[in-house]
Amino acid sequence: MTTESVTSPPGTGKTARVAPTVLAGIGAFAAVGVYVLVSSISLGLWTSLGPGPGLFPFAMGAVLAAMALLWLLQELRNPSETAAGVDRGLVIAVVVSLVLLAAVMDLIGFQLSMFAFLLYHLKVRGRRTWVSSLIIAVAGSFGAFYAFNYGLNVALPVSTIPFLNAIGL
Amino acid sequence: MDTLNELLNGFAAAMTWQNLLFAFLGCLLGTIIGVLPGIGPVAGVALLIPLTLNMDATGAIIMLCAIFYGTAYGGTITSVLLNTPGEAASAITTIDGYAMTKIGKAGAALTIAAVGSFVGGTIATLGLVAAAKPLGELGLLVGPPEFFALMVVGISLLVALAGKSMVKAVISGALGLLISMVGIDPVAGAPRFTFGMDRLLDGVSFVAVIVGVFGLSELLSYRKGDQPAAVHAPNLRSLLPTGKEWLRSAPAMARGTGIGFGLGLIPGMTGSVSSLLSYGAEKKFSRNRHQLGKGAIEGVAGPETANNAHANAALIPLFTLGIPASPTIAVLMGAFLQQGLTPGPTLFTENSEIAWAIIASLFIGNLILLLLNVPLVGLWTSILRVPSSILTALILLFMVIGAYTINFSVFDVFVMIGFGLLGLALRHLDIPLAPMVLTLVLGPLMERSLRESLEISQGDFSIFTSRPISAVLIGLGLLIVFSPLLKLRKPKALNEDPET
């Protein structure tokens, strides 16, 4: 069994396939639409005062599910070209490093976590020299912390670890 | 006379040293965003909202507006010098702008582009001054049904004009509306789609969503080889156009202003359509049309004037009716709301001083950009020489700070990452992002006006068709949505416009 739908575009005689990523996208939108549709009923579509909190989401869920179905029909008739692939290495490196940064930022503070994050992107991924990597990482972490905290009065997080907190990190 | 007095008071408020500094900083940052490939005006404005968090409302909006129209100036520089548009509206400028660079006339092209942008921006701002009062007063006459119908028209236009497929544009719009519904329901107070998370009771952070969908996803969709080629700044002597070039540019600027101003008023039309139509007008009406494509100054003057006239004219529906005409204006509207200001007719009754100060700052900002752009062309081109690894790291730094500082919560950084991945998926599926931003901002207002209308009519939907203004607007919205069935065609430029 294959996940690809095989169709013939009208008039071409050639066999074209709906890309699996497109099918997955359509499935995801349909699922979200149906979920919203069902859960908005429990929110209440109508109250004694008038429209309930579920009315608008119900309508939007219905629109999303209907459009997903319409898109599927369009794809089956005439499959669209898929966009060029992404650089998976870049996506993984950026997303994982951001998740790690967000996970430790409250614990070790903005300055240390951002310093490590920038150093990774500059030295490890960007292959910059040690000197330029360190200068930019220090400016982007410690420098940004002081600029935002004292210049713009916008507080960036400090560490919750007492030792680090005590030394201003 | 009233309008003139209020404008003069606005100038007095806008010309304090703090507000002049904010306008200057906004122009500077906007130009940098426009110059940098890979970060568009939508994400750029959203990203810099945190810088304005602790400012007073006037200064904050002055700075964000300056960032907004600064991007339109900045995008020209890479179009002329590198054959790579910094933002979509400057794409058509590459044809004659880069051809002028190849024959050693880059300086003249950049100067004419800057002057054209100034002319277009200033005349469009004069249009805003003239339209502010009458349109604002008209806006005060509309009740919840008319307001709902007006938003239906705005969203219908954007959905109809965005991307290649209307089905995909509707999906994008519906997603934005659903995201805007997360949190406490504004009328009944019931939590919706919070999945038991207290952090979601206040809804999803608008800035985190925009930065993720427009900024992070754009960065994630980079491919190897996207780094621009080496660039050299023109010397100062070559910046001065000849008398003949000035004379040839004037009619092109006049045509560009008219086209940009007219199209800027229509929700869904982007700056790229204005610049493209302006180029088309030059091809048809210019005396030197046979030179277009080979380095004709009209090919730079017309489109650059048009896209700046468009950018400033697009502020008119926002200021007078509270309707954002483009995704970047929707982000600006979010910033207005964040500062406690409601764009629309009530802006001129409740916050008149702030509104006029912002309008006056548009004149000042356009002048700052004219003075800033041409002499500093060497600085702008040096930004392009910064290696992409350093730019990526610094853009990520600002994204994290931008997402975090809205609610001072790491949760919003996770929201940004999640929406970055969603944005990447939407780009891959060729789903336009613009309707999502617009409905994200308008969603709560639209829902509130719908429910208020139905409460007034005690649940009778005919309230939208029995009142003449709302009936006409709803009819117009339906006509727009069903325009493909009527075989009405939209401008081709909108299919490929990254802003949509």
Q: Span between N and C termini of chain A?
A: 56 Å
- In terms of DSSP E residues, the strand content of chain B is under 5%
Count of DSSP E strands of chain B?
A: 2
- Please give the alpha-carbon distance between the first and last residues of chain B: 40 Å
Order of secondary-structure elements of chain A:
EEHEEHHHH
Largest sheet of chain B: 2 strands, antiparallel
Q: Greatest interface and its residue counts?
A: A-B, 68 and 60 residues
| Largest sheet geometry of chain A | 2 strands, antiparallel
> How many DSSP helices of chain A?
5
- Poorly predicted regions of chain A are 1-14
Name the poorly predicted regions of chain B: none
Order of strands across the main sheet of chain A: 1-2
Helix content of chain A: 55-70%
Shape of chain B: globular
Topology as H/E string of chain B?
HHHHHHHHEEHHHHHHHHHHHHHH
Q: What is the number of domains of chain A?
A: 2
Rounded to an integer in angstroms, the radius of gyration calculated over CA atoms of chain A is: 25 Å
Number of extended strands of chain A = 4
Helix share, percent of chain B: 55-70%
Which secondary-structure class do the elements of chain A indicate?
mainly alpha
Strand adjacency order, main sheet of chain B: 1-2
